[in-house]
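To: structure desk
From: M.T.
Subject: fold request, one chain
Message: Could you run this one when you get a chance? Sequence is below, nothing fancy, just the single chain.
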Amino acid sequence: GSVVDRLLDVVVAETSRRASRTNSLMSFSWDPYASVTEAISRSDVRLVAVVYAEEWNPAALGTAKIFNDIRTSGQAQFARILIVNAETDHAEAWNHGVLLAPAVVVFWDGTPLTIRRPDWDDDVKYSGTASRETFLELLRSARDVAATGDTVVRFEL
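Reply: Done. Structure tokens follow.
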């Protein structure tokens, strides 16, 4: 083994390790944007959370996986959670002001709710990563606030 051979072995091993990690993060299926349009127009689904993620972005994939775990666990049966690929559905993502993933847009009766966070501008999306508990609290707060007729979710981490 020359130095080049050893270096090549390291690069191949690292590439394989990263691909394996990405595949483990992709243990969910992407929802087509048509599912969002359908969900927010239904009268029997009041709260819809749309998670915008990207395949190449580990933070976004981690957020998508958290939301997938929430939707499959039954902890947020009051919400319809959809995970959309912000790259393939980029026009729809841009329409919701999503320039970077991960981002979560929460709809109540088809209308995006405003998310108000300390030291952030009001927005129709939650941008960034958080824990599973924080995302569950976001969904619960959105439900509780919107049920009173308010459209502003005051959310503190």
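Reply (cont.): The two ends are 52 Å apart (CA to CA). Let me know if you need anything else for the meeting.
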